[in-house]
Amino acid sequence: MNEAYLGEDYIVIKALENGVTIIGLTRGSDTKFHHTEKLDRGEIMVVQFTEHTSAMKIRGNAEITHRYGSTMSESVKR
Ligand code: TRP
Predict the structure, then answer these.
(1) Torsion angles phi and psi, residue 44, rounded to 5
(2) What domains are defined for the chain?
(3) What is the CB < 6 Å shell around ligand 1?
């Protein structure tokens, strides 16, 4: 990696309710949570996959925009 490296595409996560959680999962042979971020309604976060993060888990109602389009996550009322 060098200073010209721009990395992976960005993903935009917009919270549609309070308390949406974004959890970063480690890259490599074991898969662990290494970072948790909470968003409140209307907040957005712009993120990339990195050498440390190969997957993300999103809990709650959110709109996720990425190179394949847009996906909604939902929270199920229990
Ligand atoms: N640590 C795993 C990896 O780097 C994380 C992961 C990526 C994963 N994609 C996955 C875990 C799909 C389960 C299913 O590969």
Answers:
(1) -125, 155
(2) 10-73 (2.60.40.50)
(3) 25-28, 31, 54-55
User: Residue 16, by phi and psi: left (phi above 0), alpha (psi -120 to 50) or beta?
Assistant: alpha
Is the pLDDT reported for residue 78 higher than 80?
Answer: no
Q: CA-CA distances (angstroms) from residue 45 to 11, 39, 72?
A: 8, 8, 15
* 32-64 pLDDT, tens digit each: 999 999 999 999 999 999 999 999 999 999 999
Please give the Cα distance from 40 to 9 (Å, whole number).
24
Give the residue carrying structure tokens 């229990």. 78
How far is Cα 2 from Cα 44, in angstroms, rounded to an integer? 28
Comparison of pLDDT for 6 and 19, the residue scoring more: 19
- Rounded to the nearest angstrom, the distance between the alpha carbon of 3 and the centre of ligand 1 is 27
